[in-house]
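Two proteins follow. First one:
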Amino acid sequence: MKVKEIFVSAPGKAILHGEHAVVHGKVALAVSLNLRTYLWLKATTTGKVCLNLPNIDLFLCWDLSELRQFLPSSCGNREEVKPLDAELVRRLREFVGAANGNLDTCNMATLAFLYIYVSLFRSSELPSVTVTVWSELPTGAGLGSSAAYSVCLAAALLCASGVIPPPLKEWDHTARWCQEDLEIINSWAFQGEMIIHGNPSGVDNAVGTWGGMLRFLAGKIIPLSRVPLLRILLTNTKVPRSTKVLVARVKDKINKFPAIMSPVLDSVDAISCTCEKVLTEMTSEPITGEHYNILEELIDINQHHLNVIGVGHPALDTLCRVTLAKGLHSKLTGAGGGGCGITLLRPETDSSVVQATVQDLRDCGFDCWETSIGGPGVQQHSLLSVKEEVLEILSRY
């Protein structure tokens, strides 16, 4: 094994503008969240492969002899990611007891790990390792937790197998890979996402890989080179919803009222493009209050559009009402119908206002965090640079 120990992290994601409209050929803007997933890989001499996922109470170990049966007979170029090996996925499903359709979070996370591990070490003796992953992201909230997990797996295992070099130098605290290596990480992370979700768009793993903001249109993903770091509140209403059902609901409404709904989708598209223009200006000229005024107006307009197309929810209305009472502007992010929302914080917003707003939202039964959007994608860390509480959690396993 090329690397004996590696510590990496990747961010979650939120949709800033364009959710649902993107399904109908409009622009969406996806941004990284400064809530991250952390992975610590350590080589061992136990003859076992151990996977520890304390967020979902999953702790597994396999003897290397159990996993060698999945090594392919032929060796290919691991930098060139081939289409997902359906036969290998099928065999691994049987191995983890998911062949009967029991595709819960634990089984999907296990499958993604084993698939990438076996595939990347296919040309050599399988190494004995312990991989521990812990996340600041809630699972199943539409915040890209599975993609952040897949990106971390890909980055760490690609380095451990020698496909890409670790970017961290002796004097660095954090480091990022070069563009070519990020492309490889993203490709393998997408394989993990395919195992977990079946037919993902690729947006979530791209945000986890590159960070910042991405423009998504008609299947094409373009990372934007520079975006400002924006403070936000992220609120999870904890109202469950089905993305599939909500997407179908929007499609039905468009088919029923095309003359009404098409202009709404065009307006959402214009909101995304206008927001992108404003954010670009904020990186090239002094940031003014007017920039934030426009961003707030776009948030309000888009939230009204999302209600019009049928993906609002009373809990999201409560979020908008509670934050507006404090002079703050909010919108849903993701599928809607519950789920999560984001609230923009201006630079001059007093900490007492933020704390009072967070408390008001928690009093509504919501989870709420102050965080930021637009931060870096996947990174390697020195152990000295990792937040003390994160290292303490991961050190337990």
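Second one, unrelated to the first:
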Amino acid sequence: MPTTPAPAAPPRSYTCPKPDCGWTGDFDAAFVAWCRSCGHGADPSPADADAELSDRARDRLAREAQANSARALALFEELKAGADPRPHARTRRAVAVFSVAVHIPFVLMVAGVVTWVATTPGNPVAWFLGALGLVIAMVVRPRVGRAPRGRGWLRRAQLPALFGVLDKVADAVGAQAPDAVAFNARVNASTARSGLRQRQVMILGVPLWTVLSGDQRVALLGRELAHQVNGDSTNTVLAASAQSSLDEWAVLLNPRGWRGTGGGGGDEVGFVMQVAAFLVPVMLLPFYLTFLGLRRLHERVWFATKPRAEYLADRLAAKAAGTDATARLTDTLVLVGVVDNFVSRQAARRGKVDLWDELRAYADAVPDHERERLRLLDERSGASVDSSHPPTYLRRRLLLETPAEPGSLRISDAEWAAVDAELAPLLKAMERDLLLG
């Protein structure tokens, strides 16, 4: 039998200390008490959390937050007015062209090594430098991702009920059902294409999956599959490969990695090594700065399509699951920290508990005032989130302030029961790993 959370503590009364407010209300003693009228006390973190930052750093962060907020609100107003959320074609082309250009050094390096070795046969120096060049080329090579294989990836024959639901959701959003599904312990979900054959894979976080209702799960699956059809350039293997290659170049050319490599002693070899340890970082610095700048520029171009793609994914999910279910999904997303903390606490106990049942009961018992507080904090922090993602509160507002979608797909209770039954052994094994590992 699943265990239930401990009985809630008696509610406590709270009065806003601000003289111009004075709001009073009752709160569950297990959660933060705050003023639901003016928002005072909603964020219990220290006000001077950034006290160690310099004035210049604080000003820079404030300017970045203001710029991100302005861009996010401008896009929200544009889409609310009826603009097409599909990412602009010129931006998608820019991502593709930039991503191809990133791999030109790899092509030139391989071609140069092959040409040099072929034109200087028998030269040991050429062979040594050629081998070194090929090693570097392998580090920065284009990558297509790992193909789904092994025990972690589950296919249609292993999860027929889940793939039956995925087929229906994919059809509702105009996408292709994934070739494989994996589960992990993160409060998240994602899809990608991987391997030479570019198979589509989906990763579902069990904690998030556990706390969602059936229609919210449809919304989750729908918005993840929608990323495959909404023009999101960040999901292309070319863009991901280019970003990975730039990351490797930045690590390879980082002058800090060459510090302290000089030899000891006073002999000639030691002296040469010390000189090399000084000169190599100096020579690498301009190349390092160049690739570091390219990486940051690529990130800006790469993520330029992301906010629109996220909004469009929400819209496609709403067409499948309905606006109400998709909006409630965004409400649940503000509980990510709460869910993650609960799983971490239970795992630290190393005891015998029905983790997923307790998690579901705990999430259902989170009071409205706590959900409201988390939504408020999400809105307050929305100005400083990464500009690659729109703030969650704006995603929710856009869903609720545009014409509602009734949803075209309904999954029956019997279908969800079949999905839960076939996932039960996998979830039990993951629970055992978390609690005993």
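SUMMARY FIELD: The first strand starts at residue 12 and ends at 15. Residues 43 and 87 are 35 Å apart (CA to CA).
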